[in-house]
Amino acid sequence: MSATGTFATKVGLAEMLKGGVIMDVTNAEQARIAEKAGACAVMALERVPADIRKEGGVARMSNVAVIREIQDTVSIPVMAKCRIGHFAEAQMLESLEVDFIDESEVLTPADEEYHVDKHKFKVPFVCGCRNLGEALRRIAEGAAMIRTKGEAGTGNVVEAVRHMRSVMSEMRRVKGMADEELVHYGKEIGAPFELLKQVRELGKLPVPNFAAGGIATPADASLMMQLGAEAVFVGSGIFKSEDPAARAEAIVIATTHYRDPEVLVRVSSGLTTAMHGLDVRTMDESELLSTRGW
Amino acid sequence: MARVGVLALQGDFPKHEDRLRALGCEVMQVRMPEDLNGLEALVWPGGESTTMTRVMSDELRVALTEFCVHHPVWGTCAGMIMLAHTDPDPRVRTLGLADVHVNRNGWGRQVHSFEGELSVVPELESPTQATGIFIRAPRITRIGKHIRVLATIRGEPVAVSQDRMLLTTFHPELTGDDRFHRLLLSWILEPQRSRISSTGDRT
Questions:
Q1: Predicted confidence (pLDDT) per residue in A126-176, tens digit
Q2: Which candidate among A52, A96, B66, B125 keeps its CA 20 to 30 Å from the CA of B39?
Q3: For residue B126, how many other CB atoms are within 10 A of its CB?
Q4: Residues of B in contact with A79 (CB under 8 A)
Q5: Do B54 and A75 touch (CB under 8 A)?
């Protein structure tokens, strides 16, 4: 007797990625560099978020041939993004046997009302969140991993910090609540009561909690890990920098030794310029990706 | 109280820490050679063997090899790969301490990850049937003659031991089946026997 696609096997893979760095790549050569640098997984996509911002247009699931080529190149898990609510893209990614699907606000949303029913899939899903309510709504839909949304493609960690701090402080509040307070709080933040009860018991999310959106340096990775992230995603930060291979390696080592500033100094010392970056405060509301999804 | 280390380079080390603490152990995360000082046993968790290869310094590799020859150690999934032998690949440099050869991701990609019924040898206490979770798991392709098989799935070995070294391709730390953690702890009190593999091809 054996069963594939169970929730335990989905969360199991997320557990195995802890303490690691998941890197955005757009072709097989970048995937090879990422794996060699120590990435624990790669995210296959057509354009990194910084380019999606610059070029505009509709951002969709990656090209099938590129995903296949990346799968053939690396032995680590290969993730890919589908648009919010675009379950047909998700079905294709499952058929391609990608290891994890990111239902991502970085792509143009396909449904303004519903996210994908992730329980129906054998492949695990990761979804972004800005706060505890959003995280638990995604878990209720079947997400096996949660990440902060941050503000992708900016090279600015401020929004990821805001989102991680929200989730962590809301979980601390939940820990001291009586049942009747929990029911009321669930209504307030739009989170299912049963999942809130699990958070109260565990003191953390029932699935792994990673950081994403704007991480560009070893110090950014260390910051997010110290704030409670269990692993980090790095998008534009690597292949939009001047020294992708060295930077990728430095961020991997910084994520393992995130509490050791001496190691951070050592791995950062050879690096040149990080991606230029954007000040989120000067951006128009319509340019924000983190407000996509709910 | 046993002092047990959990290698924390990358992977599901937090789950192993939880299980060991529940059994009353003092648990230490290991990232640097000096973190091994004073430990009585080590768990090498699952994760990505390519990442572990990259993150491990030469000093840590030497210190881990020395530690694993003299103390009880348990590798799960990628941790097992790192203690055993695998097909030559520049991305993965294992310690090669166990006389076991494995095929990485032997069952295929994540869609083929599964929960399955294990048959466990009676010495590990009842029940002899238990569920194992296999995540992009390695498959054992060859074992030396001094290797003991502790659990199988459809007749295929998935948990083996060599002296005081335990290797599992699945994840007892994810199911709450603490027999393997207890087996490791029981070895702390056992005298050390000869443990160099018969092939002698340590790398």
A1: 999 999 999 999 999 999 999 999 999 999 999 999 999 999 999 999 999
A2: B125
A3: 9
A4: none
A5: no
Using the Cβ of B183 and the Cβ atoms of chain A, whether some distance falls under 8 Å is answered with: no
Chain A residue set in contact with B, beta carbons under 8 Å: 1-6, 8-9, 12-13, 15-20, 35-41, 71, 75-77, 94, 97-100, 122-124, 230, 249, 252-253, 255-257, 260
Which residues of B participate in catalysis according to the annotation? 77, 171, 173
Q: What's at B199, amino acid-wise?
A: T
The predicted-structure confidence for B64-81, as pLDDT tens digits, reads as follows 999 999 999 999 999 999
Q: Which two tokens stand for residue A191?
A: 């989170």
**For residue B199, pLDDT beyond 70:** no
Split at pLDDT 50, 70, 90, the class of A59 is very high
Task: Say which residue the tokens 């994840």 belong to.
Answer: B171
Identify whether the C-beta of residue A131 lies closer than 8 Å to the C-beta of residue A165. Answer: no
Domain ranges, residue B165: 3-202
The pLDDT confidence band at residue A53, using thresholds 50, 70 and 90, is: confident
Residue listed under structure tokens 């805001």: A162
CA A109/CA A236 separation, integer angstroms: 20
Total domains, chain B = 1
* Cross-chain residue pair B111–A37, CB shorter than 8 Å: no
Q: In what order do the strands lie in the sheet with A78-83?
A: A209-210, A145-148, A125-129, A100-104, A78-83, A41-44, A21-25, A232-234
Give ipTM to 2 decimals: 0.94
CB contact set of B115 (below 8 Å; sequence gap of 6+): A2, A3, A6, A8, A9, B131, B132, B133, B134
Q: A2, A71, A76: which to substitute to probe chain B, counting the most B Cβ within 10 Å? A: A2
Q: What is the pTM of this model?
A: 0.95
**Residue range B85-94, pLDDT digits in tens:** 999 999 999 9
Which chain B positions have a beta carbon within 8 Å of A15's beta carbon? 12, 14-15, 46, 135, 174
Please, what sign has the CA dihedral across residues B172, B177, B179, B182?
positive
CATH code assigned at B150: 3.40.50.880
